[in-house]
Amino acid sequence: MSTNLKINPERLWSTLMETAQYGATPKGGVRRLTLSDEDKMVRDWFKTTCEAAGLAVSVDAIGNMFATRPGTDPSAPAIAFGSHLDTQPAGGKFDGILGVLAGLEAMRTLNEAGYETTHPLTLVNWTNEEGARFAPAMMCSGVYAGDLDMATMLAGTDRDGKSFGEELERIGYKGPETVGERRFKAFVELHIEQGPILEAEEKTIGVVTGGQGIVWLDGVITGRDSHAGTTPMPMRRDAMNALAEVALAIEAVALEFGPAGVGTLGEALVLPGSRNTIPGTTTFKADFRHPDAEALTAMEAAFTARCREIADGRKVEIDVTRIWRKDPIAFNSTIVEAVEAAAAANALPARRMISGAGHDAFYISGTCPTGMIFVPCWEGVSHNEEESATEADCGAGAQVLLDALLRLDANPPS
Amino acid sequence: MSTNLKINPERLWSTLMETAQYGATPKGGVRRLTLSDEDKMVRDWFKTTCEAAGLAVSVDAIGNMFATRPGTDPSAPAIAFGSHLDTQPAGGKFDGILGVLAGLEAMRTLNEAGYETTHPLTLVNWTNEEGARFAPAMMCSGVYAGDLDMATMLAGTDRDGKSFGEELERIGYKGPETVGERRFKAFVELHIEQGPILEAEEKTIGVVTGGQGIVWLDGVITGRDSHAGTTPMPMRRDAMNALAEVALAIEAVALEFGPAGVGTLGEALVLPGSRNTIPGTTTFKADFRHPDAEALTAMEAAFTARCREIADGRKVEIDVTRIWRKDPIAFNSTIVEAVEAAAAANALPARRMISGAGHDAFYISGTCPTGMIFVPCWEGVSHNEEESATEADCGAGAQVLLDALLRLDANPPS
């Protein structure tokens, strides 16, 4: 199962730069919020371009776009691939977009070679992966998978009070196809890593074996406001210093469960917020992740136990509430192996890794065998106008995508 | 030097409750912002009441009020005492007010006894001690002492854009007397402790030997924003965890310089403030205090050295800027001893202590021999509608004030 088909990295790069015009920002990034005028523009471009490549484009009732190249077996389910074309408010040119345009490049390469696959191939643009304008993230792959309720999502509003459903109709992308009706033989998503590991280890391809489980915890620490000048150190019930110990406990627990575990305190408030008042209240929002479900449970337990010790030691109350948990995801082994073999066949340095960020592929993995491919991005920076990836790495990712798809066409996951 | 003069604690308490009506809040506190209608009401009451007690009331050009009882030596400078009648926006019934009304009670007690002092006695209400409506705090004792510029203070505005000078004229308290023209032989201020020490140690009288020196430091910690899911722990430059170490360093330095030293991190911001983004920037505002100037300098040096270690250890930048330093104040030893002797003569449990908070007496100490007396307040709570002190403790403070004044009248500081 090896072909000589070579994608055209210059053409892929030129297509990336072409779409980056829709919502281009002065700093070289992209602002293409879901269902905005810019989103409509890139969708129109995508539809026209896919049709020009001979693909049949269909849109479902929540705006997911499917561009299909027929296979030789009309009864075979499609092998699908793609990602998303929407961006963060100050996003980059690669997050999501690379996965869609590399799929287009794969289609064009097959067309040029006149190569016929057994299975139909379907390139997908999932609606609203970012969740920046309408929450939550990965919305329409979630609806497709049956994990999110469509009516609720359509009724959701942006900051200006405009609903998702209204905006979807306004830009003309509420399609006729029933959401979730179409199922796939397999799904593969190429994406920038959005982390620093591949770059640091000089690997070109991340063979993604699954996604981390996530636990989100909200905390409130209650001590006592008192005068910074008149309250002796031993008589204080300082919610700031308790917060400091909580932050370091999150880090310590993550290191204890490392290297796979991570833990972050990303938001905190210090109240009442006066230099000469000892803070009586602090709040925090914590994020723990681990690829193993039991380890994730153990991380949460270790952290909450440590919070009790901190509370006792500092005469404060620490209330911790779990507001969300998502179990880890394991991708399909046949797809993981196909990606790994495709990287090896192209002599590209590769490593297996876990996805730290969420992706549409996570929801899709509940509906069909799924896998992902990562390529490096500059210093791991993403969700940022400075987000950057090289032409060579983008091309390598597209090549591995194409080769993996052909391997799966020949030896599909069961 | 001992008299049988006894102040009337019930009358003092009743006067405290009477003035608490001007700006009374539903929760039992007082809202009497400087130069507000409520401030005018209590000032009118104070003037009328002092005049009814035979005192000559004068007002200076920044609203400081002086109520004088003549002495037998017309050439002697007055011995002064008092505090302030303005409050925090959600203040209590005792902060400042006790010092003024205990002085009034002392005057009334002398009147009833027909007791003649050698020195004139002057009861003072300093304008705008709180600084809540017009910054800074201790404004008009500062102008009186020559430490703050009068024109600048008069031009200062509140949130509504009203100037201090306009409001002073509006309520009719821009007096004819030149600010600072009147100087005293001595000044004694009675105040609630605003801290928990006296209550915890079951002492009735705090013999205040001086005021802490204060250093205010502003800090900015710069790491790097990155994705909470994709950035391995060892590759992070987490400004939140650096902030945590900074907070604990402030505490450690204070403990190292304890028990006199204190250190507080009262304000902090965590940016960009997203649960799944490792904070790239944090800011903090720190407050260090110590009664010894050299120790205060050493605390600051120890802290900034520790910040450099934290910055190195966490690959972040920590910029620390000193924005204010106030050297410690030592009160006059003759006055300290007079207060201590007065407490002992009344068999009141007393301890020497440093004032943790700032007071008008600090500025006045630059113009004449000065001292302070503290009485306990409930759980050290102040700047709060729940601020509370007992009738017995208020009465004890007034008694010590009167006795100390008489001791100073007989044996004034040189």
UniProtKB/TrEMBL annotation, chains A, B:
InterPro entries: Amidase_Cbmase, Bact_exopeptidase_dim_dom, Peptidase_M20, Peptidase_M20_dimer. Gene3D superfamilies: 3.30.70.360, Zn peptidases. Zn(2+) 2 binds at D95, E130, H383. It holds the Pfam family Peptidase_M20. Zn(2+) 1 binds at H84, D95, H191. Its cofactor is Zn(2+). It comes from the Bacteria. Residues 212-311 form the Peptidase M20 dimerisation domain. Belongs to the peptidase M20 family. This is Zn-dependent hydrolase. The lineage of its organism: Bacteria, Pseudomonadati, Pseudomonadota, Alphaproteobacteria, Hyphomicrobiales.
